[in-house]
Design goal:
About 35% of the residues lie in helices and about 25% in strands. The chain is globular. The chain contains eleven helices and 14 strands. The two termini are about 30 Å apart. A hairpin with a 2-residue loop joins β12 and β13. It folds into two domains: about 240 residues, Rossmann fold (3-Layer(aba) Sandwich); about 90 residues, ACT domain (Alpha-Beta Plaits). With about 350 residues, the protein is an alpha/beta fold. The chain has a six-stranded mixed beta sheet with strand order 6-7-8-3-9-10, sandwiched between helices. The protein has a four-stranded antiparallel beta sheet with strand order 2-1-4-5, covered by helices on one side. The chain has a four-stranded antiparallel beta sheet with strand order 12-13-11-14. The chain binds adenosine-5'-triphosphate and magnesium ion. Adenosine-5'-triphosphate binds next to β2 and α1.
Length: about 350
């Protein structure tokens, strides 16, 4: 179901134009972000995923000017952040909230005073900021914890408090850098639900940095995949799940290695089959056998909920005979199922480039 947002989804809020960030000089130089160009739309939940050191934090910090760029440009609502004066940049930062893995709360202040802090810095009078802080605590479900100190809160509650503080200035954007990485899976889901709820109610743009595909699948509309500072792929999460193009995307999307029956260890040709929730794995395989008379061996399989839609995928060994393989491929294509050949991933070999 298409979500109703208060803002037009087509409007671009951030535009990165050939952004490169190099730390250090000469032999110590590290290219943390390498020629990244992408656009983030107003109102969307945009994920950035990649392994440790991929440049995610550096890239997200360029979005609010916390990190200067070595070359390229960063536009926020059409304004080039790299050209702005400090004062103008500070003003823009007020419309971009941020939360972090380790919450960054002030231990000496209680919950309500933590939320009041950015408003205090912005010169908002005490009574007004106190009322606003209480309202924000209620939104994140912490109304009973107004006087509690951060040390008296659980991890999930601390992150809720950080979200309340980040939203106090009514920002247009919320940047989340590994905001759920320190939390249990159950608490992670609660925080992601809260973020999604806030996005739906207010239309705020959310940028989520993570190294977990589960987080992306749970709430992101689109995702950018980063590897060694470079943008590998960007697109709708469902599209990337169904047909990942880059090696980095495939690593994220393919079923985890099944040690009992790893598909990399087979000598036979293997295919990855991906389908949405309209057809179950069992039905597809049963019908395959009855329609083609061919048997396939399932080496790995999983099902996922991507943005609320169920997706499934399997790695299968296909029949050894050419005719058998052709029958099986034709069957999947007729069912509208995405199918591509994969070869020995263990050896690090590339998949055959052409999707079949
Ligand atoms: N201030 C800095 N000075 C020098 N090098 C830096 C600095 N900040 C980041 N780097 C380097 O830039 C690269 C990208 O770092 P970054 O923190 O952006 O990665 P990341 O994707 O956020 O990783 P993680 O998942 O571990 O948080 C790394 O090689 C890192 O060592
Ligand atoms: Mg990081």
């Amino acid at each position: 179901m298409e979500r109703e947002l208060k803002v037009s989804r087509e409007e671009v809020i951030f535009r990165l134009d050939h952004v490169t960030k190099i730390f250090g000089k000469k032999e110590n130089a590290v290219k943390a972000v390498d020629d990244v160009s992408l656009e983030i739309e107003k109102g969307e939940i945009f994920g950035m995923i990649g392994m440790s050191g991929a440049g995610k934090s550096t890239l997200v910090r360029t979005l609010n000017g916390l990190e200067s760029v070595t070359s390229g440009k960063v536009f926020f609502e059409g304004k080039d952040l790299t050209e702005l004066k400090k004062k103008e940049l500070l003003k823009i930062r007020q419309s971009i909230g941020m939360i972090f893995q380790h919450f960054n709360l002030l231990g000496q202040r209680n919950a309500v005073l933590n939320v009041e802090l950015p408003m205090k810095i912005a010169g908002i009078p005490k009574a007004e900021r106190h009322a606003k802080a209480l309202e924000m605590l209620k939104i994140v479900g912490l109304e009973s914890k107004e006087k509690a100190y951060p040390s008296e809160l659980s991890g999930g509650q601390k992150q809720r408090l950080a979200i309340a503080r980040a939203l106090a200035m009514e920002p247009k954007v919320l940047l989340c850098d590994e905001a759920t990485s320190a939390l249990d899976p159950g608490i992670t889901l609660e925080i992601l639900d809260l973020l999604k709820d806030i996005n739906e109610k207010t239309g705020i743009t959310i940028v989520i940095i993570t190294h977990e595909m589960d987080v992306v699948e749970k709430i992101c509309d689109r995702v950018a995949i980063l590897d060694y500072g470079r943008l590998q792929e960007v697109g709708k999460v469902g599209d990337i799940f169904t047909s990942p193009k880059s090696e980095a995307a495939k690593r994220l999307v393919y079923p985890a290695r099944d040690t009992a029956n790893p598909f990399y260890m087979t000598d036979r040709r293997c295919f990855r089959v991906a389908f949405d929730g309209h057809s179950s794995r069992e039905t597809i395989i049963c019908d395959l056998v009855s329609e083609t008379g061919e048997k396939v061996n399932i080496l790995a399989a999983n099902t996922k909920s991507v943005g609320g839609i169920g997706y499934g995928q399997m790695i299968i060994e296909i029949p050894e005979t050419e005719e058998g393989a052709a029958l099986v491929l034709d069957y999947f294509k007729r069912r509208g199922v995405f199918v591509e050949e994969v070869i020995d991933r263990k050896a690090g070999a590339e998949e055959k480039k052409e999707a079949v």
